[in-house]
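Dear H.,

Thanks for agreeing to be a second pair of eyes. The structure we're designing against is below in token form, covering all 336 positions.
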């Protein structure tokens, strides 16, 4: 790996399969940038436990599944390093130091924390959940990442990370790197229900692993313009979920689809078939790659190697951090 290149760090909680919203919101950016940056992708299993501590059994399977999603979506294991968060204790060590000067009120007012607390019915937030953005700041800074490709909901966390890193560098020594978030133009992909963001818990997703038939039947179930009862009724593309997907996935035909729909010349069924075709075109190369990774041992080897490499980086950063904080007493390890 070329040490001169700038670094990317980003990650996901392994709580389920990845869907189109993940792909268009951040995965695609990571794939596009993977040869330009030294890229680290974190499977944030400990962060997943901040909402799923009573369902720890879901993690093992999802860790492998999410890695399979990454690799089949086009993350190249030769170019980017896939890392398991729990296997880097240095992250938790750094998070503890960040926590020393993180205000509880700032965490309480974090809009993403508030939204997620509502989603999970957390009336009395745990210390671990409230503090996960601090640990996320450690995820980023342990790698000294310059860029963090994320969905829009993560911006408050990246802002916090920047503040904690800046403060660290002022308080102790300037050893950490202040990162920048990058979001894609698709910041919020609507779900098949047409009302909410695409989200596993709302059962309104097209998954990257869905086959052709599943995609077609899901697209057929998508909510369209309620004013179109018969095929010839004039349509209103701006209120139609299927059109929202065409906008992103089928820009070449957009003008034509708009006109034909408004004039009642194409029916929703035809329009949906067209869209399903476009989605399947996007997913097809992913399915081909997924076949290559059928054997979970292959995936585990990639994660193990990535985690080993990442641990070295994390250990180096922590040595600098401890020395900056003057908590490297007596060089005890060196004496052994
Ligand atoms: N909070 C992110 C999410 O829920 C996952 C994540 C964990 C992450 N650590 C990270 C994202 C570090 C970017 C950088 O999607």
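And this is the sequence the design step returned. I haven't edited it by hand at all.
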């Amino acid at each position: 790996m070329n040490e001169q290149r700038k670094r990317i760090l980003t990650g996901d909680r392994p709580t389920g399969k990845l869907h189109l919203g993940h792909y268009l919101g951040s995965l695609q950016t990571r794939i596009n940038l993977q040869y330009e940056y030294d890229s680290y992708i974190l499977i944030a299993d400990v962060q997943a436990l901040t909402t799923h501590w009573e369902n720890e059994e879901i993690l093992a399977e999802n860790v492998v599944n999410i890695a399979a999603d990454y690799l089949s979506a086009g993350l190249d294991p030769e170019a980017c390093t896939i890392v398991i968060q729990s296997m880097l204790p240095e992250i938790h060590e750094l998070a503890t130091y960040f926590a020393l000067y993180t205000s509880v009120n700032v965490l309480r007012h974090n809009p993403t924390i508030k939204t997620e607390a509502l989603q999970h019915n957390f009336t009395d937030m745990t210390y671990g959940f409230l503090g996960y953005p601090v640990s996320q700041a450690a995820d980023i800074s342990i790698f000294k990442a310059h860029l963090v490709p994320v969905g829009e909901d993560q911006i408050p966390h990246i802002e916090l990370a920047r503040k904690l890193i800046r403060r660290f560098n002022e308080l102790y020594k300037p050893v950490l790197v202040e990162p920048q978030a990058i979001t894609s133009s698709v910041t919020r992909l609507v779900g098949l229900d047409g009302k909410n963001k695409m989200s596993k818990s709302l059962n309104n997703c097209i998954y990257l692993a869905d086959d052709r038939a599943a995609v077609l039947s899901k697209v057929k179930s998508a909510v369209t313009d309620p004013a179109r009862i018969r095929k010839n009724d004039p349509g209103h593309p701006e209120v139609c979920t299927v059109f929202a997907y065409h906008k992103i996935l089928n820009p070449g035909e957009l003008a034509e689809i708009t006109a034909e729909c408004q004039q009642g010349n194409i029916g929703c069924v035809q329009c949906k078939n067209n869209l399903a075709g476009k989605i399947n075109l996007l997913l097809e190369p992913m399915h081909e790659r997924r076949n290559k990774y059928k054997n979970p041992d292959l995936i585990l080897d990639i994660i193990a190697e990535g985690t080993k490499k990442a641990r070295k980086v994390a250990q180096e950063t922590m040595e600098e951090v401890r020395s900056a904080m003057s908590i490297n007493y007596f060089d005890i390890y060196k004496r052994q």
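Two observations from my side: The first helix runs from residue 20 to 33. The chain is about 55% helix and 5% strand.

Warmly,
E.
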